[in-house]
Design goal:
Residues 19-213 form the Poly(A) polymerase nucleotidyltransferase domain. Residues 218-363 form the Poly(A) polymerase central domain. Mg(2+) 1 binds at residues 111, 113. ATP binds at residues 98-100, 111-113, 166, 236. With 676 residues, this protein is α+β, with helices and mostly antiparallel strands. Among the domains are: 33-47 and 213-362, Poly(a)-polymerase, middle domain, CATH 1.10.1410.10; 53-199, Beta Polymerase, domain 2 (2-Layer Sandwich), CATH 3.30.460.10; 368-442 and 450-491, Alpha-Beta Plaits (2-Layer Sandwich), CATH 3.30.70.590. It contains 16 helices and 15 strands. The protein has helices at residues 2-15, 31-46, 53-80, 85-90, 99-103, 124-138, 194-212, 216-232, 245-258, 264-277, 333-352, 367-370, 384-408, 454-464, 502-518, 622-626, and strands at 94-98, 112-118, 142-148, 155-160, 163-171, 373-380, 413-417, 422-423, 430-439, 475-482, 535-538, 542-545, 586-587, 614-616, 635-637. Strands 6, 7, 8, 9, 10 and 13 form a six-stranded antiparallel sheet that branches. A five-stranded mixed sheet has the order 1-2-5-4-3, sandwiched between helices. A hairpin with a 2-residue loop joins strand 4 and strand 5 (163-171). Helix 8 (216-232) packs across helix 9 (245-258), helix 8 packs across helix 10 (264-277) and helix 13 (384-408) packs antiparallel against helix 14 (454-464). The longest helix has 28 residues, at 53-80.
């Protein structure tokens, strides 16, 4: 019976086109694909990615309890406002879910993203963050309650009967909220404030994704796999400049559209194949952006023809619900380079994989073995509550540090931010962030000249200390550490891996070295329209339309320094003017710029770091944009003149100069990749 349904579904998918282009392939699975998909599902199950039936039931009970709370809250608000008895009786607020829970790809212990929709008289300030917050604080089953009213999307976070909840609020211009309220209608946004539009966007995008993918179950299994992979490889973090949950969901949904009859095993393989070759900044679109849609509402949509800032986005992944936005504006040149390298590695692993060998794909990335040089950002506060607020603020600024370092070093010094922070058990009121540093591949060491990023660090610290809620005791410090001096608390169990274990290191880093030797050259794929009906062979049973190969390739390099034995080269140049002991770090004093080269790419630096040096060469036509065939043209760099420095007599520094010398970078041997 299931086989008949599957065949009927594939036949239906042959007749329905999903997305803005024709699918790449309509071919269904082979027997081997069925075996691999079953092995993948078993692997994800064994990895503990599925919650138990008991936990699922507990979550439903918690959501029911939360719905009762907000209904009680809104009736109290209506009485306090002096509304009529009839209005008080009909007063209603409703809870919606979105994110991983709504997509059904959440795991055990994951939080639930929820949205409370209330009527026009229940304000966000006094009503939601005032009265509702007070009510929640008085309930014994509510713990760890905190509010973030000044966030881009204001929310309250708490635990209800042990289940983590992120609660957003949307105030609609209605007196009565109906139980059958449909958030997918654009009219729901009429006269809504910006914060309400952003809050509604999560639910609206999630519902739109379900309508735009051919097979929801295959989509869910594939997305669960890709999320797990992204977390293992250290590229799952929106705040650090990588991608978050909604970004990965949109990328997977696009692959499902291009291969509507594929099983999850096939979709995972195609995911890496397509995005290895994708020509960013061509956007990911699940549906066309209709300019007339919601035009009466006047909300701004992603449109590089009208919004020059949109042209600066490195990896645009556009939400399908009105108003269409770029969900990945945080991505920088460095994080895009890292993610593209991981796509290439995933493609190589999948190409060489046997039926049940999924372990290699999910190997954790050895972040603290990948680089010789790191920045350590220590965050401290006087108490736990202050530390939580302070850490959240500093982490939100962490991406800016990546941008300004690359800008001030003319892109010669590349950064790799770690997506998560670390706690030292001996210092409960301090946590640390880390960033890997390396010289841009192919750039000569310049005779050991150091980089100078002292000014950059000071700018970052000034921005961080501009926190509106700063109080005494909130401190941040930035220091430079070498690989051998990384503190032990960042390693599992607080035990540093043995440096002299060649076999252990090789087993952890074999996949990274394979990427290093192949990733600097790639084929091309773009999401533009078909032109002339020409097609290109993709494997033995598929074709790749011209629409996905009409732009220049993106050269990507993920570099790891290795010695002759395959381990990281510990003698690749001096790091500072004096020997450093294990566990010792130095303040960043001087890391000079040895090159006269200008920046090849400028970064979009928001807020305090406004900076632009790009000129648009060509804007897509109106017709092409409305059909979703947007090709973001190359941006011409305006030469950046280095400041003229008048020679001065040398001054004796009181502190040792910290230098980053990259004198023995290993070179990768690029080879052309076939377009599959």
């Amino acid at each position: 019976m299931n086989k008949v349904k599957s065949m009927a579904s594939r036949q239906q998918n042959r007749q329905i086109r999903y997305g803005i282009t024709e699918p790449i392939s309509l071919v269904g699975p082979t027997e081997l694909d069925v075996i691999k998909t079953k092995a993948l599902e078993n692997y994800l199950q064994d990895a503990g990615l599925y919650e138990s039936n008991e936990e699922a039931l507990r979550r439903e009970e918690v959501l029911g309890r939360l719905d009762e709370i907000v209904k009680t809250w809104i009736k109290k608000i209506s009485r306090d406002k002096g509304l009529s008895d009839e209005t008080v009786e009909q007063a209603n607020a409703k809870i919606f879910t979105f994110g991983s829970y709504r997509l059904k790809v959440h795991g055990p212990g994951a939080d639930i993203d929820t949205l409370c929709v209330g009527p026009r008289y229940a304000t966000r300030g006094n009503g939601f963050f005032g009265e509702l917050h007070r009510m929640l604080s008085e309930l014994p089953e509510v713990t760890e309650l905190h509010s973030v009213p000044d966030a881009y999307v204001p929310l309250m976070g708490f635990k209800l009967n042990g289940v983590s909840i992120d609660l957003l609020y949307a105030k609609l211009p209605l007196w009565i909220i109906p139980e059958d309220l449909d958030l997918s209608q654009d009219s729901i946004l009429q006269n809504a404030d910006e914060q309400t539009v952003r809050s509604l966007n999560g639910c609206r995008v999630t519902d739109k994704i379900f309508r735009l993918v051919p097979n929801i179950q295959s989509f869910r299994t594939t997305l669960r796999c890709i999320r797990f992979w992204a977390k293992k490889r250290g590229v799952y973090s929106n705040v650090s400049g990588f991608l978050g949950g909604i970004n990965w969901a949109l990328l997977v949904a696009r692959i499902c559209q291009l291969y509507p009859n594929a099983l999850p095993n096939m979709l995972v393989s195609r995911f890496f194949r397509v995005y290895t070759q994708w020509r960013w900044p061509n956007p990911i679109l699940l549906c066309s952006i209709d300019e007339d849609e919601g035009s009466s509402l006047g909300l701004q949509v992603w449109d590089p023809r009208r919004n020059p800032k949109d042209l600066l986005h490195k990896m645009p992944i556009i939400t399908p619900a009105y108003p269409c936005m770029n969900s990945s504006y945080n991505v920088s040149a460095s994080t895009l380079r890292i993610m593209t390298g991981e796509f290439q590695r995933g493609r190589d692993v999948c190409a060489a994989m046997e039926a049940e060998q999924w372990d290699t794909l999910f190997e954790p990335f050895g972040f603290f073995e990948a680089y010789k040089n790191y920045l350590q950002i220590n965050i401290s506060a006087s108490n736990v509550e202050d530390l939580k607020k302070w850490r959240g603020w500093v982490e939100s600024r962490f991406r800016q540090l990546t941008l300004v370092i690359e800008r001030h070093t003319y892109d010669m010094l590349q950064c790799h931010p770690h997506p998560h922070g670390f706690h030292d058990d001996t210092r409960p009121l301090q946590c640390s962030l880390f960033m890997g540093l390396q010289r841009k591949e192919g750039v000569e060491a310049g005779g050991g000249e150091p980089f100078d990023i002292r000014r950059t660090i000071e700018e970052f610290k000034q921005t961080v200390y501009g926190y509106m809620l700063w109080v005494h005791g909130m401190e941040v410090s930035v220091s430079h550490v070498m690989r051998r001096s990384i503190p032990s608390f960042v390693f599992p169990g607080g035990v540093r891996p043995l440096r002299n274990s060649k076999g252990t290191r090789d087993s952890k880093r074999s996949s990274e070295q394979r990427v290093s030797s192949t990733v600097s050259s790639s084929s091309t794929i773009t999401s533009c329209e078909r032109r002339g009906g020409k097609k290109r062979k993709l494997g033995g049973d598929e074709t790749l339309t011209d629409q996905l190969r009409n732009s220049k390739r993106v050269a990507v390099s993920v570099h790891v320094e290795n010695g002759e034995d395959g381990s990281p080269n510990s003698s690749a140049g001096s790091i500072c003017s004096a020997p450093m002991k294990v566990g010792e770090s130095h303040p960043v004093e001087k890391i000079d710029i040895p090159q006269d080269s200008h920046s090849q790419e400028s970064e979009e630096v928001e807020d305090n770091f406004g900076f632009r040096n790009q000129v648009v060469k060509q804007i897509p036509s109106k017709d092409a944009f409305s059909k979703g065939a947007v090709e973001v043209e190359e941006l011409e760099d305006v030469p950046m003149q280095r400041p003229v420095v008048t020679p001065k007599a040398s001054v004796q520094l009181r502190k040792p100069i910290i230098k980053l010398n990259f004198t023995s970078l290993s070179m990768t041997n690029a080879k052309n990749l076939r377009a599959c």
